[in-house]
Amino acid sequence: MLTTILQHKQQEIADRIHQLDTWKAQAADRSDFRSLVTAMHSGDIAILAEVKKASPSKGLICADFDPVAIARAYEQGGAAAISVLTDERFFQGSSPYLSAVRQAVSLPVLRKDFIIHPSQVYEAAAIGADAILLIGEALEAPQAQELYDLASEIGLDVLFEVHHQDQLVKLPTNFGGLLGVNNRDLSTFHVDLQTSVTIAHATGRAVVCESGIGGRDDIESMTRQGIRMFLIGEYLVKQPDRAAALRQLMGQS
Ligand SMILES: O=P(O)(O)OC[C@@H](O)[C@@H](O)c1c[nH]c2ccccc12
Predict the structure, then answer these.
(1) In this structure, which topology does domain 2-249 adopt according to CATH?
(2) In contact, 70 and 38? CB cutoff 8 Å
(3) Interface pTM (ipTM) of the complex?
(4) Percent of the residues in the chain that have a pLDDT greater than 70, as a whole number
(5) pTM higher than 0.80, yes or no?
(6) What is the Cα–Cα distance from 46 to 191, expressed in whole angstroms?
């Protein structure tokens, strides 16, 4: 699946590259970046709440999808930051969703996409993102370093995602972003929350536990094992009262 997505991304990058100069100018104009790193390091439990309409593993997650309403509920419920999927083909996301969400909330907003080319980093800043995701599995080490350096130069924070311990060698030198562990194997879609714990213990780093959180029990089990940062999509999107669901996940009700 990842290979299919990345092939399609190459095409998308080629189709959009004519906008690069505009994006560079818009990125250079930004001086309003909100820090994802600071937001995720505050509070007892920090939740990066994801605005997610669909996924390759689950299909359509939310039929009456209203990205701004979802993001506002997340902010009301006490999310530390918001993640917005911008991939159109596989996740039914879009850049305009991110721009609209960024305007509607005062939290840092992460652009969740498959970033493999510098033009996408400029594009992220141009559409209003405060941070980007870099996926270890999708990048070679020099490429990861280049994209990280560019993001830092522009003013974007970086969430660097790994799934296996052997991808940690791709972590950029002087890395000052957040280390995320995707509990979902992107080739089999199998989810195991212990993946986060294993990598947190092996590295001695604080990690963002990503994917597969299905309720308060999962959070309690993870916090008992020393994890306090979470990236949660499907579970939250599916709740009738998303703000209340967030408070409950954080143990506030
Ligand atoms: O909906 P979930 O299981 O709570 O997962 C959210 C998030 O972790 C997941 O969307 C994700 C993690 N890494 C990714 C990389 C690309 C696309 C999506 C993702």
Answers:
(1) TIM Barrel (3.20.20)
(2) no
(3) 0.98
(4) 100
(5) yes
(6) 21
